[in-house]
Amino acid sequence: ASAVAENYGVLLALRAAASLTINKPAGTVAGDVMIAAVAATPSSIPITAPAGWTLIQSQQQPANTASVVAAFYRVAGAGEPASYTWTLASTHAGAVGGILSYSGVDNTLPIDVSAKAATPRSLNHAAPSVNTNLTGDMLVTVHEYTSARSWTPPAGMSERVDIASRSPNSAGIALEMNDLLLGVPSASGAKIARALRDPDTGATHSIALRAAIVA
To answer: Are 155 and 213 in contact, with CB atoms under 8 Å apart?
Structure first.
């Protein structure tokens, strides 16, 4: 599996908007598997995907400054639109999202294994370890917390998305997405992304993509 491109969307904190639109990553072709993550605050905000996207998992963080982050996948077809729109409640206090596209992923069963976690008030937000089942999985991690700051990616991972819902501030919400090509089946280990400042609570995902078998 290999990363093709990435894209992201953002709704400013305190903006009363009911949707979040994210462009299709440039270079995406039919058969690629797209992974999307959308985070919003507070945790009660429903996140509804556009048609054709499948929910992988969703994690709420009800503590302190509440938030929620959901991850989805879609196998690209021959006539994909230029963008995709997620529906949110108009009462959110900030929302962010990103899409990554990958080639060489099993189109029938793209997700090998996944895990999620709510993370305590900190600058460090750990995506949990997953035990992969196949050789050549692509590990994707998602990290969010409820301050609008930039991130340092986990050691050894490639940063793909680093976005906040407003200019640097202790309010709003920030999202980080990373990936790492794995080898033989094993425990991936927890992957810790570190926010620049303003510690707060958050939530994370670890998603291992199943490599396609080449005949």
So the answer is: no
pLDDT tens, residue by residue, 103-118 = 999 999 999 999 999 9
Q: How many CA atoms lie within 13 A of 205 on its CB side?
A: 29
Residues contacting 146, CB < 8 A, separation 6+: 41, 61, 64, 65, 66, 67, 171, 172, 173, 200, 201, 202
* pTM of the shown model: 0.93
Q: Where are the beta strands (DSSP E) in 110-172?
A: 111-122, 124-127, 138-145, 151-152, 158-164
CA 38 to mean position of chain CA atoms? 6
Task: Flag whether pLDDT at 90 surpasses 80.
Answer: no
Q: Which pairs count as long-range contacts for 152-157, CB under 8 Å and 24+ apart, including other chains?
A: 152/193, 152/194, 152/195, 152/196, 153/178, 153/193, 154/127, 154/178, 154/191, 154/192, 154/193, 155/192, 156/180, 157/191
Question: What is the Cα–Cα distance from 151 to 192, expressed in whole angstroms?
Answer: 10
